[in-house]
């Protein structure tokens, strides 16, 4: 039996050395964008943002931040909490947020499970999980973030009717995610026709990883589920 309560759900956290400015921004800007998990969460998580927002979405594993920043710019009245433990992706995104003066983004640079356990019940209007590490070897399946324990976490923090959007170019992980999501009593698959999972949501900015996958001949799949 796979133990989903232990171990990390991500691989290496560091890659190439950061440029001096990136390292400085992580030290000076990121603390102001990061939710303080050492303190109780606000009763209304919209208070996490310095600007007024009407709803809050979560993006777990935002990579280079392309999709997160696009959505934050497109929907300024929506607050986005982005999670990314990989230092390079976080540094790039912090720099972009600082340069553009983005107000409706919070960033968390550790395991998403910790953040999910901190967030209040029924506080999130939607979740994106785009191109997570598929951990293809069977002995690493316990590291796949889509699992019963984390789906319980998602279900607890999501509002009734909230959307969960998952994208992957790895067929085995798409099958895995679909099976686990459909088996969970808190979620229902919204697809009514093949195009609903073969075509991305609109509007859609894509990600750098997605473009690379398509160029290499791997076709992404887009699953959407509703919190019952």
UniProtKB/TrEMBL annotation:
Residues reported in the UniProt entry to bind substrate: 137, 169, 207-210
Q: Which InterPro entries match?
A: SAM-dependent_MTases_sf, tRNA_(Gua-N-7)_MeTrfase_Trmb, tRNA_methyltr_TrmB_bact
What's the catalysed reaction? guanosine(46) in tRNA + S-adenosyl-L-methionine = N(7)-methylguanosine(46) in tRNA + S-adenosyl-L-homocysteine
SUPFAM superfamilies xrefs: S-adenosyl-L-methionine-dependent methyltransferases
Annotated GO molecular function terms are: tRNA (guanine(46)-N7)-methyltransferase activity
Q: Which family does it belong to?
A: Belongs to the class I-like SAM-binding methyltransferase superfamily. TrmB family.
Protein name as it appears in the record: tRNA (guanine-N(7)-)-methyltransferase
């Amino acid at each position: 039996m796979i133990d989903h309560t232990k171990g990390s759900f991500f691989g290496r956290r560091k890659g190439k050395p950061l440029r001096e400015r990136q390292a400085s921004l992580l030290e000076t800007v990121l603390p102001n964008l990061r939710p303080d998990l050492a303190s109780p969460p606000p009763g209304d998580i919209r208070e996490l943002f310095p600007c007024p927002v009407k709803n809050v979405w979560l993006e777990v594993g935002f990579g280079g931040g392309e999709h997160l920043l696009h959505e934050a710019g497109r929907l300024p009245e929506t607050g986005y909490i982005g999670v990314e433990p990989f230092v390079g992706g976080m540094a790039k995104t912090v720099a972009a947020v600082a340069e553009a003066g983005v107000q409706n983004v919070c960033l968390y640079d550790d395991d998403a499970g910790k953040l999910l356990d901190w967030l209040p019940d029924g506080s999130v209007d939607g979740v994106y999980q785009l191109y997570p590490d598929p951990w293809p070897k069977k002995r690493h399946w316990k590291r796949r973030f889509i699992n019963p324990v984390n789906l319980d976490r998602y279900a607890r923090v999501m509002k009734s009717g909230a959307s969960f959007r998952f994208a992957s170019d790895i067929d085995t992980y798409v099958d895995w995610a679909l099976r686990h999501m459909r088996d969970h009593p808190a979620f229902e698959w919204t697809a009514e026709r093949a195009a609903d999972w073969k075509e991305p949501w609109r509007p859609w900015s894509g990600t750098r990883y997605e473009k690379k996958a398509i160029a290499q001949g791997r076709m992404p799949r887009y699953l959407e589920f509703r919190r019952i």
